[in-house]
Amino acid sequence: MNEVRRLLPDLRSASGPASPERLAERGFDQALTKAWAMSSQAIIDEVTASGIKGRGGAAFPTGLKWSSVNKAEGQTKYVVMNADESELGTFKDRVLLEEDPLGALVGLLIAAHAVGARKAFCYIRGEYREVEQMLAKAIDTLTQLGWAGPGRIDVEIRRGAGAYIAGEETALFNSIEGKRPEPRVKPPFPTNKGLWGSPTLIQNVETLANVAILFAHDAQWFAEYGTKATAGTKLVALSGHIQRPGVYEVPFGMALADILNAPDLGGGVAGSGRLRAVLLGGAAGTFLSPDEVAQSQLDYASLGAFGASIGSGAVMVFDDTVDLQWVLTKLARFFADESCGQCVPCRIGTQRIWEIAEKGGLWTRTEDLRELGQAMRDASICGLGQTAPLALLSILDRPGLRQDV
Ligand SMILES: Cc1cc2nc3c(=O)[nH]c(=O)nc-3n(C[C@H](O)[C@H](O)[C@H](O)COP(=O)(O)O)c2cc1C
Ligand code: SF4
Hints:
Strand content: 5-15%
Bound molecules: flavin mononucleotide, iron/sulfur cluster
Structural class: alpha/beta
Number of strands: 9
CATH superfamily of the largest domain: NADH-ubiquinone oxidoreductase 51kDa subunit
Radius of gyration: 21 Å
Distance between the termini: 36 Å
CATH topology of the largest domain: Rossmann fold
């Protein structure tokens, strides 16, 4: 067995994933009791010692973020669960919230308790209606048991309205505040000035679920999987030409080839059965050649050597019949559509890349594209513009992937 079942429990109790029975079965009632008996600093020390890094894409150390919000000046503080999940090829938070909504919520409550917040938001992708209902049930359970609610930690669900950019943390704050979801210039960072100008802790769903299982057990148990540098597990979302598409939980350090081929994971390349490339980390990720896939582990250092990162955990697989120019054209259109248009390098850059792609110029206008990509990376306000050219640039750096089908 290569698949791990910590975040995605193999429990099928009749009471359902949002019930008080499930809370107990998962050890989350004990996790809350344990955290409530600890000081803020002790909780933050535990999270820091676990080495948990953000699972939303940037892999920022979670304990460090909690410490910054805890130390920030401010009467009112907020915590936010980011469940906007609108990146192409990313669907792991949806599965996680469907199967274990209490996990991420327990992590959110522990986070609120640690940084001194009395108000929490769950910002959820608008299309995830069933997930939203499951989350609402789980909030009811926690409220009935006295862990959440007005007077304790009030948890409110807010639905996104279909924009990828609303997942960017400061755009998300604007959306909650009833403004256009446009990113803010940073600094100031959310840890000091987030929602309504107050210190705000924002974490991805999977990051918070990791906090819950950490407190339901301990740091030693947590580190039984993973590598020395990165303890624990990661959810990966396999899609494209893969025999068994879906979301799987795997230990950090697992060979990428095993994730694709193990019978209980990806089950092998579908379509022609011959791999052309893997796009790792979503639309703003990096294409890896079959050779690079064979040499990579799911580990920040191993992937960093190829200029790649795990991102949100999206793994898109393409067999050797796929024209990658066509794929890049689709990605270019996505970014041109989703740019909020606030800053010029991103607004014009995403549009120009799409136009060049539509005209079939991706393999010939390489110098122009490199220059455009660099300008976008250097001068865009937010992560969307800074990362939109990455997948394209990764192919320009890998001439072997460029041949026409
Ligand atoms: C365009 C864009 C979209 C994003 N969408 C998401 C998202 O849907 N979910 C998420 O957790 N983080 C998303 N992020 C990252 C967030 O800004 C933020 O870094 C993250 O929620 C922090 O949580 P973490 O430290 O637990 O990863 C997005 C970033 C950008 C630039
Ligand atoms: S980089 Fe793009 S998405 Fe981000 S603020 Fe600028 S225009 Fe908007």
